[in-house]
């Protein structure tokens, strides 16, 4: 009788152990399922923008214009943020050319002649880096017009107003404008173009090599933008 009771107890104990393991497996599966659902929910949020089988979440300060495209290794985004027009801050006149962000560059005043008229502009240069500045009659807080006509930056000592400079990682670059990006955008993209939502202003072109920013370009693609000024 005792042996029979012990045998029954053993069977009950084994059944309980298997039941615990089954419950544990179910719990793990439920957690995994919840985790997968959470990841899906992140991607399905209203502030996520999907493009070409990938996604990103822009910051409000980026003022993303709901327009993006990927062609090859190039990501193009349209923005209305102040940064696209004033990448060195609110520079309004010639005296601002000595501001901390521009102190690495030497400024030279030049004159352009157009239809019997002439106007002043400035060449800012350091080594192979050069920028063309044109100050318009309206102040930046009155008119959405960039003071940069075109330019190129290769020196890491020249920094934009939001901390962007050559040498930073593409991950750090994304962090300036996005809350979150899909991981594949780190390796998939080597050129990032920021286009202004108002025409007649230069776009920003950021070139990356091995996920490091190598060059910054400001270039005009609209007719009449930056065409009449020479370095």
TrEMBL record:
* Protein name, per record: Uncharacterized protein
Lineage of the organism? Bacteria, Pseudomonadati, Bacteroidota, Cytophagia, Cytophagales
């Amino acid at each position: 009788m005792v042996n029979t009771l012990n045998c029954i107890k053993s069977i009950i104990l084994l059944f309980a152990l298997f039941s615990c393991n089954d419950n544990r497996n179910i719990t793990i599966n439920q957690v995994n399922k919840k985790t997968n659902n959470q990841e899906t929910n992140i991607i399905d949020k209203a502030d996520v923008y999907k493009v070409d089988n990938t996604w990103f979440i822009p910051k409000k300060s980026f003022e993303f214009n709901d327009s993006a495209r990927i062609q090859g290794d190039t990501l193009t985004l349209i923005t209305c943020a102040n940064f696209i027009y004033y990448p060195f801050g609110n520079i309004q006149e010639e005296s601002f050319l000595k501001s901390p962000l521009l102190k690495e560059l030497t400024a030279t005043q030049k004159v352009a002649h157009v239809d019997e008229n002439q106007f002043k502009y400035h060449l800012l240069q350091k080594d192979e880096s050069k920028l063309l500045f044109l100050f318009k009659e309206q102040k930046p807080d009155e008119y959405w017009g960039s003071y940069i006509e075109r330019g190129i930056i290769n020196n890491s000592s020249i920094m934009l107003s939001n901390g962007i400079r050559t040498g930073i990682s593409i991950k750090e670059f994304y962090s300036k404008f996005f809350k979150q990006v899909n991981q594949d955008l780190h390796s998939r993209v080597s050129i990032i173009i920021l286009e202004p939502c108002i025409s007649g202003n230069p776009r920003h072109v950021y070139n990356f090599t091995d996920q490091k920013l190598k060059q910054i370009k400001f270039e005009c693609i609209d007719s009449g933008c930056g065409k009449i000024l020479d370095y």
